[in-house]
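Predict structure. Input: Cystathionine beta-lyase, 403 residues.
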Amino acid sequence: MTDRNSVDAGWHKLGTSLTHAGRATPPEAGTYVNPPLERGSTVLFPSLKSMNRKGQERYDHTSIYGAMGSPTQHELEKLIARIEGGTDCQIVSSGLAACTTPLLAFLKAGDHCLLADSVYGPTRRFAENMLKRFGVDISYFPPCASRAEVEEYIQPNTRIIFTESPGSHTFEVQDIPMLAEVAHQHGARLFLDNTWGFGIFAPFEHGVDVSIQALTKYPSGHSDVIAGAITVADQASWHILRDASIQLGQVAGPDECWLTLRGLRTMGVRLAQQARSALQVATWLKQRPEVAQVLHPALPDCPGHNLWKRDFTGAGCLFGVVLNAPYTCQNMERMINAMRLFGIGASWGGYESLVLPTTGGITRSFGAEQPESPAFRLQIGLENAQDLIDDLDQAFNALHHTA
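Output follows.
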């Protein structure tokens, strides 16, 4: 069994950066600990020459006009880039916008985009509708494909491989360094939705070109923010991304940025606790006779566990549960409705525990990757882990009842 200490080690290492980055350094006399929230649209300049000069500094995380980012947004961008190990970050209006904006920035008509079959559903929907309508070819590869198998899906016009590891419904961990090598050998970029791995997976050390975050999840941490982040590690990519973001009007409100900055200060300790609780709950679920499989990357029988062990410094608080075949979706629905501490709802990464069915909500090109039995995912929050186990224990009683 995986040592529980291994799921939280990476979170503890973040503590100093999360506490000190994104703040005035060194502090001036009278400086608040938390940078103040700054709202605004118009930025005033002492002269036209000054305004024109400032207008050329759009790549420098500076205040030019409110729709190009606030001082609060720029501080958040610096902190996210530091955690990801990149050079620059663009904050956008949502996690989905963080997926779609770089696709629009780096693709053009006639290009081919290859996506992991486990990619976030709304990203897939955008690719199938918007990108195809704009003349981009779209295809998919099995998330656990080998190098040779991935090579078969590459086309002469492939410009982006887009992946998400682990997938947020079926939790396959993918070989990111291998995918990066394949992409670069064919003149393509590797995009990674790194939302589950934020803070515990270093994307640019593993060959990623563009790392994507839903700040709604771990960073804000309180289920009251919608925002996203896109991070890159070279100037050429930053200029393409930044120009596209400005042209698309992609920006996040200063209130959302400030709340995310505040949430980041405690992300390390929150997620260390949630990661430990998640593994405790997952380990308990593995012993239940009603459960066929627990899809937690830190568990040895989860797809991609060895890759998780190799590449990650910790684990998240979201994992999947597959029930045994005799149980139906109706059985599972009764079980979920019987839960008292788990809220029924989308999203994850906040302080509260959630449950969401995954059966019937997944679109796949490769059916073998989907569980055949009813499945759901659990987001483990900051509640006492034993209380959550007790809640699941009583909910299993409803699973056995007939309608």
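The chain has a mean pLDDT of 93.
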